[in-house]
Design goal:
single chain; 185 residues; mainly alpha; AhpD-like; 78% helix; globular; disulfide oxidoreductase activity; disulfide bond; AhpD; AhpD_core; EC 1.11.1.28
Length: 185
């Protein structure tokens, strides 16, 4: 499985997604580790088995075992943090802003890869999960580490396209089930 597998699974109406997958797989503003870690963390955050399998297979050819684990860790920890901090941000009760989270987040301090790469993957997942507080926090860290706006934007473009591919493939699977049920009736 690979990006090409995903492109061939997409329907004709999603031609733009096919084109975007191709161009983003060749994105030059990110290192190979940043690029494929972003693809993998975004795939996991998008929660589609077909997308995860295809991207993980290709990422495994490009990333070290440590980077693969760190990308998975970014998706896992942001799955928790994005919910918690989105609640803190959206709640009208200011008391939550002063309370400690009391959640384990050790992997953020020791991700097993360059801190900037882990922050980039965390930012992409935070964008998918819609946590503005986390997006702001990770972007600040990336700028402190010297990443340019173009690299940050590239990671978000990857997250957006990977998520759109997952949504499209889910919709196609549901459509196929509905059509099969209607034919059987």
């Amino acid at each position: 499985m690979s990006i090409d597998t995903l492109k061939s699974a997409l329907p004709d109406y999603a031609r733009d997604l096919k084109l975007n997958l191709s161009s983003l797989a060749d994105e030059e503003t990110l290192t190979q580790q940043q690029l494929w870690g972003t693809f993998l963390a975004s795939a996991i955050a998008s929660r589609n088995a077909e997308v995860i399998a295809a991207i993980e297979a290709q990422a495994a050819e490009k990333l070290s075992p440590e980077a693969l684990t760190a990308a998975r860790s970014a998706a896992a920890i942001m799955g928790m943090n994005n919910i918690y901090y989105r609640f803190v941000h959206l709640s009208s009760n200011e008391e939550y802003h002063t309370m400690p989270a009391r959640l384990r987040m050790n992997v953020i301090g020791k991700p097993g890869v360059e801190k900037a790469d882990f922050e980039l993957w965390s930012l992409a997942v935070s964008a998918i999960n819609g946590c503005g507080m986390c997006i702001d926090s990770h972007e600040r860290e990336l700028l402190k580490h010297g990443l340019k706006s173009e690299a940050i934007q590239a990671s978000i473009r990857i997250a957006a396209v990977v998520h759109a591919v997952a949504v499209t493939l889910e919709a196609e699977a549901v459509s196929a089930q509905v059509n099969k049920a209607q034919e059987a009736a």
